[in-house]
Design a protein that fits this description.
The protein has 7 helices and 2 strands; from the N terminus they run H-H-H-E-E-H-H-H-H. It is mostly helical. The longest helix is centred in the last third of the chain and has 16 residues. The chain has a two-stranded antiparallel sheet. The two termini are 13 Å apart. A hairpin with a 5-residue loop joins strand 1 and strand 2. It has a single domain, classed as Orthogonal Bundle (Arc Repressor Mutant, subunit A), CATH 1.10.10.10.
Length: 150
């Protein structure tokens, strides 16, 4: 799975908001994570339009989560910032069509999407901040083979 900078930066900013209790500006979020402020500002505006965060102007202003961190899955953020979790040449796996020896490749792509969903829909911002991942996800991450580059 390729995680674009837009998703990585957005998640890092949201995790920073989830860990704190006061609103933070895009500049403060960018500084806390070493991110480019302008790019993060665009990302935060997209998250605001999608209802993931709210913003307030003024001296006490900044961004805050629109709902509790335990209700915001990583999958929901990825979908806002990058679209569907899995696509094949720009189409959803269930719409990909193959013939001949590749006829069952569609099933593989659907299984890949299901696997991504199993992790990303079940991990919330609160889970990551607390360092308490769901058991199934923690087991996957604990497997030494998961950490090996191939």
């Amino acid at each position: 799975m390729h995680v674009p900078a837009r998703v990585d930066y957005g998640l890092r900013a949201l995790l920073t908001l989830a860990a704190g209790e006061v609103p933070q500006t895009a500049d403060a979020l960018a500084a806390s994570q070493g991110l480019p402020p302008r790019f993060l500002g665009v990302i935060m505006a997209d998250l605001r339009r999608a209802g993931v965060v709210t913003s307030q102007r003024g001296a006490e202003g900044g961004y805050r989560l629109a709902r509790p961190a335990a209700e915001i899955s990583l999958a929901s953020v990825i979908r806002v910032l990058d679209g569907p979790l899995a696509e094949v040449r720009g189409v959803r796996p269930e719409h990909a069509r193959y013939e001949g020896p590749a006829a069952h490749l569609q099933e593989v792509w659907v299984a890949v999407r299901a696997s991504l969903r199993t992790v990303l829909e079940n991990v919330t911002l609160a889970d990551v901040v607390a360092g308490r991942l769901p058991e199934a996800v923690a087991e996957l991450a604990a497997d030494p083979a998961a950490w090996a580059s191939r």
